[in-house]
Design brief:
Helices cover 36% and strands 22% of the residues. The chain is of the alpha+beta class. It folds into two domains: 196 residues, Ribosomal Protein S5, domain 2 (2-Layer Sandwich); 164 residues, Alpha-Beta Plaits (2-Layer Sandwich), CATH 3.30.70. The strands form two sheets. Strands 1, 2, 3, 4, 5, 6, 7 and 12 form an eight-stranded mixed sheet that branches. A four-stranded antiparallel sheet has the order 9-10-8-11. The longest helix is centred in the last third of the chain and has 25 residues. The radius of gyration is 21 Å and the shape is globular. The mean pLDDT is 93.
């Protein structure tokens, strides 16, 4: 009998740098203990038969107690043809094959998850990362223990393969795990931060689905257009304004929409750099850390317009019950938000927000993609 291979990978929260990775800027993010699981058993034919958690189980805390799965089949003996725009299971296999990995026979695969679907918690990214890790383990590839390689393969399968506007934060944070500082230049620089933050994060589900691609496009395109408009003034990046404040005068050349969105990104980059100094330094202050998260969210809400009344109600209720800061998580326009709090305040915050009708869960930092041992 063939042995069963089991792997899992974590979801993430973006602490600082939301909506900035695709601008070539920086992100500080943490992997969290909500995970996507996958297991495989070898078949004696060319079929990869996948049973994946039913998409209707899409809210935080949903249990798959009835074993509800959707079924997909990929035939390795035939060319892989995408039958929908975001055909990520097929694209994950296809990207592996395009990159020379030899998948010489089929597998029976079961995929399940604790991660809410379509809520800004990188459910699609983690699905891809966990499937790529699983297949690399099954074929005994030397890249199976290389989180950077797995992250890049995942990015290609999700973003590059379909010409979508997403960034690399989700792929790298999930693959590497822990607390990471990511710098997106010509080559992504991954800086592991050897620190476990005090207190806890509490994730809340607004129960609102979101249009990720539209939100990303509406937030990204005006900023890129603004930077293009200011090229003649020597502006090539949001960083230019941070390192030379005299260049802020050029913002007046932009129309209101571009000016507001670019200004918010400049301020959020400043907030990230301030948070970086504190997180990596010797004097971590939870109240100040929370206030920086809160300020980051204010820019996302007021300039990028990615919050919703439900998310604002969640955050305000959490603040009244002791939360130190909070923000929308992921692309926004619905989905999840989180707050940061002292451990002793978590139960009170959870109870108050749950009374509004929104599910929540206390989160901790977690490790990256890995093999699970029985």
């Amino acid at each position: 009998m063939s042995k069963t291979v089991r792997v899992s990978t974590p979801s993430r929260i973006c602490l600082f740098g939301e909506h900035q990775d695709y601008l070539g800027l920086e992100v500080i993010a943490s992997a969290i203990n909500l995970r996507f699981y996958a297991q495989a058993v070898e078949r004696d034919d060319s079929l990869i038969k996948i049973k994946i958690r039913d998409e209707r189980l899409n809210y935080l805390g949903a249990k798959n107690s009835e074993g509800l799965y959707e079924e997909r089949t990929i035939d390795l003996s035939k060319p892989i043809v995408y039958t929908c725009k975001r055909d990520y299971l097929k694209s994950s296999v296809n990207v592996l094959l395009k990159n020379g990995y030899k998948i010489e026979h089929g597998y029976d695969i079961i995929m399940d998850s604790e991660i809410p679907i379509g809520k800004g918690m990188c459910s699609s990214t983690t699905m891809i990362i966990v499937l790529i890790k699983l297949l690399l383990e099954c074929i005994g590839s030397g890249d199976k223990d290389d989180p950077e390689k797995i992250a890049l393969l995942g990015f290609n399968a999700e973003v590059a393969e379909f010409n979508e506007p997403g960034g690399m934060m989700d792929h790298y944070t999930s693959a590497f795990g822990g607390l990471v500082h990511l710098k997106f230049n010509e080559r992504t620089e991954i800086i592991r931060i050897d620190r476990t933050l005090p207190g806890s994060f509490i994730l809340f589900d607004s129960l609102e689905r979101k249009n990720t691609l539209k939100v990303l496009s509406d937030a990204k395109m005006p900023v890129l257009a603004a930077l293009e408009d200011l090229k003649e003034n020597g502006i090539t990046s949001v960083k230019d304004f941070y390192f030379d404040e005299s260049k802020m005068k050029y913002l007046e050349k932009l129309d209101e929409t571009k000016r507001v969105k670019l200004s918010a990104n400049i301020d959020n980059y400043r907030i990230l750099k301030e948070a970086e100094r504190m997180i990596k330094g010797n004097h971590f202050n939870p109240e100040h850390f929370g206030s920086l998260i809160k300020a980051h969210h204010a820019n996302l809400r007021d300039a990028l317009n990615i919050s919703t009344p439900a998310i604002e109600s969640i955050l305000e209720t959490a603040y009244k019950n002791g939360a130190l800061g909070g923000k929308v998580n992921g692309s926004g326009g619905g989905g999840c938000a989180y707050v940061y709090a002292y451990d002793e305040d978590c139960n009170r915050i959870l109870k108050a927000v749950r009374e509004l009708g929104y599910p929540g869960k206390v989160l901790k930092q977690d490790v990256g993609v890995k093999v699970d041992i029985d």
